[in-house]
Amino acid sequence: MAQVSINSDPDEWGWSTDAGERARLLQSPCVDTAPKTDEEPSPGGPSRGTTSTLGAVFIVVNACLGAGLLNFPAAFSTAGGVAAGITLQMGMLVFIISGLVILAYCSQASNERTYQEVVWAVCGRLTGVLCEVLIAVYTFGTCIAFLIIIGDQQDKIIAVMAKEPEGADSGPWYTDRKLTISLTAFLFILPLSIPREIGFQKYASFLSVVGTWYVTAIVIIKYFWPDKEMSPGAILTRPASWVAVFNAMPTICFGFQCHVSSVPVFNSMQRPEVKTWGGVVTAAMVIALAVYMGTGICGFLTFGAAVNPDVLLSYPSEDVAVAVARAFIILSVLTSYPILHFCGRAVVEGLWLRYQGVPVEEDVGRERRRRVLQTLVWFLLTLLLALFIPDIGKVISVIGGLATCFIFIFPGLCLIQAKLSEMEEVKPASWWALVGYGVFLVTLGAFIFGQTTANAIFVDLLA
């Protein structure tokens, strides 16, 4: 592919040649990418990475699957049943895959290796800063969701250990939700969040994959062989309104959002070619779709409209198989929180250093103090919010709305800007079609984000 010059003058967007930690955001745990140098081969040249095509498929699946799996049965209920949920997922998958391909194309065109660097290079300073801020907010919100998930699963496990009756309003002081979340967070999450590097990422990836597949298997098994005490609510067969369908989109976007980590994965491949990458992401998204659809359909049909936003909370506390699933989810989230925090901290660090105009290599002496302070502030804020926001559905709605920006809006803007920067005297019909598709992605993403935000504000005002 020919090299395309997109905002190639560093003065246009204020980016240093070596910004250190700020640039390595949301890299997949299995991705090994070195900082760029002038001696590196061009994107269309010899192989630059070590990841095979099959390995890239696994990494993308791993980046896609996660704790968002728990919310898909509720998304099917919100959408209006199985038919509506399947149609919605299949329709959105087309745009999700195209966004991943667009990002790979723009990564080659701009010769950048991370999501936010691509947006900076292609769309300019203002859009790049906005992208980084949204990544920080998204990772912050996801950390809150992780803490809520820990509390939800711990409540069920502790209830069995303390032999509390199902649905009891009170219990011993040591079973208080705020106490258990705080102890877990301080004992496990905080120590894992302070280090500068995250060497345990590969173990977190393994736990996440095993946990999500196990949860899916349990949800499917419990649908075919349900417990006697479980009784489903009303099984919806059609959406109540178009608004209800759009209300399910944030959950789907949150589940399938792997776009931010996809750019480093693409650049880590042995042959980073857009055509090959298209096959990689298509295979990965089909696998993720099978997992999400299996969980969503069986979880929804098991409980109907009565399904909890976290499907595991709908099962009896005494169920041993479900208890194992809860333990898997807790372990996965305990190790995923530090990774997401690391990504958010890197954005904050980059924004701060760029605002101060201080190169990283001249500010190493104060890096540790800044890192500890940033970690403590981030950790305490997410913990406090998690303690006082018991409903994970509200958090998923907000961060799912932000996920639409990474899936639709920024890839659409990159596609538009990339094609506009190709100064050709005669532009073929395909050129205009691509620009039009970019406009469509931006419009669709803005509509979903606006709908989600307006709905959240409206519901909060009514409450």
Topology:
Blueprint: H1 53-64, H2 72-79, H3 82-110, H4 115-123, H5 125-161, H6 177-193, H7 201-224, H8 242-256, H9 259-267, H10 274-303, H11 320-356, H12 367-388, H13 392-420, H14 429-462
Helix pairs in contact: 1-9, 1-10, 2-3, 2-8, 2-10, 3-4, 3-8, 3-9, 3-10, 3-13, 4-5, 4-13, 5-6, 5-11, 5-12, 5-13, 6-11, 6-12, 7-10, 7-11, 8-13, 8-14, 11-12, 13-14
What's a concise summary of this model?
This protein has 463 residues and is mostly helical.
Structure description:
The chain has 463 residues and is mainly α. It is globular. The chain contains 14 helices and no strands. The termini are far apart. Helix 2 packs across helix 3, helix 3 crosses helix 8 and helix 8 packs across helix 14.
Keywords:
463 residues, mainly alpha, disordered N terminus, disordered C terminus
Main sheet characteristics: none
Structural class: mainly alpha
As a percent range, the share of strand residues is under 5%
Distance between the termini: 54 Å
Low-pLDDT regions: 1-47, 459-463
Q: How helical, in percent, are the residues?
A: 55-70%
Extended strand count: 0
- The number of helices is 14
Order of helices and strands: HHHHHHHHHHHHHH
* pLDDT averaged over residues: 79
Shape designation: globular
Gyration radius from CA atoms, angstroms: 22 Å
